[in-house]
């Protein structure tokens, strides 16, 4: 293995952590947009924009993992079958929560309801990211996957 290949392989663990951190930041910005709008209605438009961006980024991240990253891990580490199944289940749960958040924002739900949606999403997302990092970062340091990080982990 050449030095360049080694750097590319190790980059997957850094890429995953980096995307998770950027998604955490995007959620923070979304929450700040909600807080800035209380009790004024115009912030709902800003929140809709932030929510759309955050929701699209998180969805693309999970779709990339499910479609490219997890199959590559499964092929090289079949012992992680149960872990990958759990992570996919988390992705389904997060998608459900994102749908609820998007619907609440679209109908201009009261700030307290939007807060509840964001609180629930933040809790599940953080738990998922921590579990995923605990289970996969070591594997990602040696994963042989020749793909664009943006398509595998999302546009962030």
Descriptive overview:
The protein has 156 residues and is mainly α. 83% of the residues lie in helices and 0% in strands. It is built from five helices and no strands. The longest helix is centred in the first third of the chain and has 34 residues, at 3-36. The chain is elongated. The model is unreliable at 1-10 (pLDDT under 50).
Write the layout of secondary structure elements.
Layout: H1 3-36, H2 43-76, H3 81-106, H4 111-140, H5 149-153
Features:
156 residues, mainly alpha, 5 helices, elongated, disordered N terminus
Which consecutive residue ranges, at least 5 long each, have pLDDT under 50? Answer: 1-10
| Proportion of beta-strand residues | under 5%
Helical proportion, percent range: over 70%
> Radius of gyration in whole Å, from Cα?
17 Å
Sheet with the most strands, sense and barrel status? none
Count of DSSP strands: 0
**Alpha-carbon distance between the termini?**
29 Å
Query: How confident overall, as mean pLDDT?
Result: 86
Count, helices: 5
Q: Can you write the helix and strand succession as a string?
A: HHHHH
The helix/strand class is: mainly alpha
Q: Write down the overall geometry.
A: elongated
Summed up, what is this model?
By secondary structure, the protein is mainly α.
């Amino acid at each position: 293995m050449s030095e360049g290949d080694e750097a590319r392989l190790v980059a997957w663990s850094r890429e995953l952590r980096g995307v998770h951190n950027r998604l955490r930041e995007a959620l923070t910005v979304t929450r700040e947009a909600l807080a800035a709008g209380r009790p004024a209605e115009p912030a709902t438009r800003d929140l809709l924009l932030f929510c759309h961006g955050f929701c699209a980024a998180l969805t693309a991240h999970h779709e990339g993992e499910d479609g490219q990253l997890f199959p590559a891990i499964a092929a090289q580490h079949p012992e992680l079958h149960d872990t990958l199944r759990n992570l996919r289940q988390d992705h389904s749960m997060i998608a459900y929560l994102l749908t609820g958040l998007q619907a609440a924002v679209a109908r201009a739900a009261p700030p307290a309801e939007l807060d509840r949606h964001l609180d629930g999403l933040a809790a599940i997302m953080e738990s998922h990211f921590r579990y995923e990092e605990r289970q996969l970062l070591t594997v990602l340091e040696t994963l042989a996957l020749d793909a664009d990080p943006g398509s595998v982990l999302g546009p962030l």
